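Final report, results section. Input specification for complex C-07:
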Amino acid sequence: MILIRAHEADGVVTHRIEVFPALIGRSMHCGVRIDDPSVSAHHAELHTTEDGYILRDMASTNGIYLGDRRLDYIVLTAEDSVYLGNIRLDIITEDHFEKTAAKKVLPSHANFGVNTPTKIGLAVILASAILGLIAASDQYEIFWPPDRYSTIFRKGFLMLAPVVLVALLVSLFCKLNAKRFYFYQVLLLIVSAALATKISITVAPTLTFNLHQLPLAGLIAHLGNGLIAFWLVFFLQRYVFQRLTAGQRTLIAAVAGTLAICATQIQIEHQRNGERQTMAPIGLELPPTADLKPNADDLFFDLALSIAAVDQQRIKILEAQEAARDSN
Amino acid sequence: MANQRRTVSRTLKEPADPITPNRGKHLVFHNAKIFSSQFTLVLAMICKLFSPAAAHADPVLLPSGNRQMATVFAQVYQVKTATEANAPKAAYGSCFVVDQSGLLVTNYHVVAYALQDPEKYHLYLMDGDQALPAAVVAFDAINDLALVKVAKTFKKSVNFARDMPESGAKIYSIGWPEDLNKSVIEGNFNGMMSAGPYQKLQMSIPLNPGMSGGPSIDEYGAVIGVNVSLRSDSQSLAFAVPSTLVKDLLKKPRASYSHSDDQDAYAEEVRAQLDLVQEQLTHLLRGPSSTVSLGGWQADKPAHMVKCWHGDDAAAPTMISVVTEHCYLPGSAPVRADTDTGTFHLKYQSFRTTRLNAWQFLHQLNRMIPNFGFQNVDPAANFTTKLNCSESDFLNTNRIRMHVHYCVNAYVQYSEAYNMEFTALTLPKDGRSMQLSGSFLGFSARNSTAIMRALINSIRGGG
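Structure output:
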C-alpha cells in the first residue's frame, strides 16, 4: 500500500494505491486520475518490486521529474516528491504512513476537499437560499414589499434555494471539487432549478408565479435556457478557463445557469404583463382627500347610472322575449 | 326626523312582532277555546277515559287523536306538476282541502313551475289514480302559500286552529314524503318565529321533501300551519306557515294564472307582494338601529329582527386580526322555484395590524375583498339581468374616506326590483380599517340606495 498526494491546481488529492501496477494519468481509465493539462492521458505507471515502488514514464509529453531531472523511471523512497508535468506528487510509503497517519494524514474525504472559492460560492448560495426560504414563507411581505421588482428577486431566491440543497448534497456525496463530477453537478443544478420552479408553482399557489398560465412552455423555457447557459460555460471551461480551478468553474457554471433561469422568468413576466389586467391596489391612485366632498354623492350618482344600465338591459331582454313569442 | 322614525317603528312593530310575551300568555290562557268546536269537544270527552297519561296536560278534557286525525288525513292530497296528466311529474308536493267547493292550499314553491311556465307545466291533483287538472287562483309568494282550485266537490274541509298550541305541544304533519305513501309524522311545536315580514312556526319534526304543502295539525286535529321547509343542515328543525296567513290568503281575490297570457298579471302580483316586503324591510333597516362596535369602529345595524353572529379571527398568515359581525334576516320569499329573494344580510369587519406597513396592509386588504356573486344570477334563465359592477371612493358624512365596490342587477320579470351588493372599505389608517358589506335582494332602487347611503354614512370612529 502506498499513498500519493497529488498537488493539483485546486487542492491536494490523496490517492491510496493497493493494486499494482497502477496507471497514473489524465485518462478516465487511470487508477490515479490527475486532471491537469500538463499530465498526459497515460502518463506513468507505478509498480511494486522487491526493491520497492517504481514509477515508470509511459512516453508522456512532459515526462516525470525527481527534483530537476527528467527520468524514465524512479525508485520511490519514503517522502520523495516527484513531478508529473506541473503536478507535484508526494509519496508516502506504508511504513512512513503508519508512523505519521495519526498526526497529519487524514483520509481526504473527511474534509470534502472543498477549497476557498467553492466555500465562498456555497456561502453566497446558502445566504440566498435562506433569503429565498424567507421569501417563500407566508410572512414574506414583511421582508419584501409586494412590488414588482422585489417579486422578481423573491422568485430568483426561491429558485436558488433548491439549487443550494442539491449543491450541498452533491458536495457531501461526490466531493464537490473532484473534476469529473462538475458536469453532473451543474446539470443537476439546472434541472433542479427548473423543477423547483415548477414545484413552487404547484405547491405554493399563493406565490402567484405567472407561469401557472403556461406550465409546459415555462418548463421548457427554463430548461432550454439553463442548458444553453450550461453548455456555453462548459465549452468555455474546456478551452478558455483552463487556468481556473474546478471550484471556480463550478461556481461560474452555476451562476450562469441560475442567471439564465432568472432571465427566463423575467422574460415570462414581461410577456405575461401584457396580458395581465392591471390590478392597482386601492387607495394608491386615488384623488387626494381634499378634493372629495363628504357626502358620497358621486358614489350614488354612479350607482344611479349602474341601475339605469341594468334597466336598459332588462328592457332589451323583455323585447327579445316579446319578439320570440310573436314569432311563435 | 326623530319623531318620524319613532312613528315608523311603532306602526311596524305591531304587525311584525306577534310573539311579545303578553301575546304568548294570551295564547296559552285561551287554549281551551279550541274545544268550542263541538265535534272536537265530543270526541275529546269520549276519549278522555282512554288516555290517562295526557290528563296531566289538561285535566278537563283529553285530546282525541285518532279519529280526528283520520278526518284530516283523508283531506290531504298530492299535487303534481307535469307536462301532461299522464306524464312523469316534474315536481310534487302535498295539499289539503280548505273549502269543499274544491279549494286546496299548498306551498307556493310547489306550484311555482306551473306559474312560471304555464305553457309547459300544468298542475294536477292526484285523486287516487285520477289526475284532476288544477289551477292556481291565488298565491302568497312571500309566505310561500298558494290556493289551488279543482273541479271536484269534497265532503269535508279541514278546521283551522283558532290559537296556536303551547310551545312544546305535540303536533303532527301529514304529507307524501318522497312521493311514497301518505304519512303522518309526529313532532313538537316550538313557537312562532318572526323576522320582518316573515312569520313561521318552528317545529321539531322530521319533514321530508314532498311533504311541502301538507298540513301541520295540533293534537285536536286543527290545522296550525302548512309545512314549508326543513333546515337542510339540521336533523329535524322544520318550519311551517302559520294558519292565520292561510286565512288571509283565502280572503284574497281569485285570479287566473294558468295561461301564458296571465304571465304579466302573475309578475305584477309577485312584484306587488315583493313591494310590501321590501317596504317593511326598508323600514326595518332604516328604523331604530343599534351600534356595531368593532375594533374602534362603529356602524349602525337594525335593532330588531336580525340574527347576528360575532367572530374573532387572528389571521396569522396575513398578519391581520379580523373581527366580524354578520347579521342576516332569517327569512326570505321564494318568488320562484329556484330563487329566494326579499331578504338582506350585512357583514361588518374590522381589520387591525401592528406588523404590516401601510402599503402592505392595503395590499392585503385589497386581496381580501370578496368576489361578488348573487346566488340567483343565472344569465341563461334571463330571470335577472347581468351584474353591473363599479367602484368609487369618497368621504362619508363623518369624513371617513372609503372605497366602495358594488354590483347591481335587475329582475327582468318584475319592474323596479333589484339585487344590490356592496363592500365599503375604509382607507387604512394606523393599521386599522373597517369593511361593511351588504346585500339586498329584491329591493327597489330608491330603497336600496337609501339603505346603502344610511349604512355607509353610519360608519364612524376608527381613531
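The interface with chain B takes residues 138-139, 141-142, 145-146, 279, 281-284, 286-287, 289, 292-300, 302-307, 309-311, 313-314, 317-318, 321, 325 of chain A (CB under 8 Å). The two ends of chain A are 104 Å apart (CA to CA). This concludes the modelling results for the funded period.
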